[in-house]
Amino acid sequence: MTQDAGSDGTVGKALDVLDMVAQANRPVRFSELLAQKTYPKATLYRFLQTLTNQGMLGYDEDRGTYSLGVRLVRLAHSAWQQSSLAPLARRYIDDLAAESGETIHLAQMDQGQVLYVDKRNATQPVEMFSSAGKVGPAYCTGVGKAMLAFMPDPAVQAAISRQSFHRFTPQTLDSAAKLLTELGAIRERGHAFDREEHEPGIICCAVPIRSRSGRVLGALSMTSTTSRTTLAALEAQSPRIKDTAAQIAAEAESWRFPEQN
């Protein structure tokens, strides 16, 4: 069960089951979900039936599998238009990608994790974890650390409590103490780095996207590889990245971007 599902009653538990299906990344059988020992058999079946009846899940009778429903596609499209920075940021990240030739990421914070909402590939694309719609860890990504560094203390502590601190590479920050030290340094210089902390060979310079009041709306990063550039070279681009972030923030401000936790 996810951290908050139990405290949110029936709705929270139903959404938890929805997440279980989503995390499988493929059609999944009832027995596989039951094997996770999250809910009793009857309870799990009831939630699956309700979610299927509401179009949030689809059920393949021939294969006996559940998958995410078409209704979620409609909801996701509406969410992308209403709550995502992506539509209004598109032209700005297009320009930044064209000028730099590097990969550009646009991200927002989602329950203490990084949600990549848009991406522009480099002139010579490189295989990496991130893609639009994908969720990644906040503690070892440039965009994640850029957002955490400028969030209010209670929000930072809540986000830190959700981090696994799994050591992906020798450079990964593997404790809350190390992360907090890094966040202090990021606040001083105004931008964050990914020093091969999530994936070997992948580096980036990232900046927060902040409203006039200082509220963190998201983050922007320029990402490359150690085989073709250096952190110093990416840092030299930080004024341009910050300028683009400011343009996106101004656009979001005028659009009355909704409040986020």
Taken from the alpha-carbon principal axes, the silhouette is: globular
Main β-sheet, spatial strand arrangement: 6-5-4-9-8-7
CATH top level label of the largest domain = Alpha Beta
CATH topology of the largest domain: Beta-Lactamase
Per DSSP E runs of 2 or more residues, the count of β-strands stands at 9
Integer-rounded radius of gyration: 20 Å
| Main β sheet profile | 6 strands, antiparallel
What number is the mean pLDDT?
A: 90
Distance between the termini: 21 Å
Structural summary, described in words:
The chain has helices spanning 9-23, 30-34, 41-53, 70-83, 86-100, 142-149, 153-160, 176-189, 231-235, 238-254, and strands spanning 28-29, 57-60, 65-68, 103-110, 113-120, 135-136, 192-195, 202-210, 216-225. The chain has 2 domains: 6-74, Arc Repressor Mutant, subunit A (Orthogonal Bundle); 84-254, GAF domain (Beta-Lactamase). It has a 6-stranded antiparallel β-sheet, sandwiched between helices. Strands 1-3-2 form a 3-stranded antiparallel β-sheet. The mean pLDDT is 90. By secondary structure, it is α+β, with helices and mostly antiparallel strands. It contains 10 helices and 9 strands. The longest helix has 17 residues, at 238-254. The two termini are 21 Å apart.
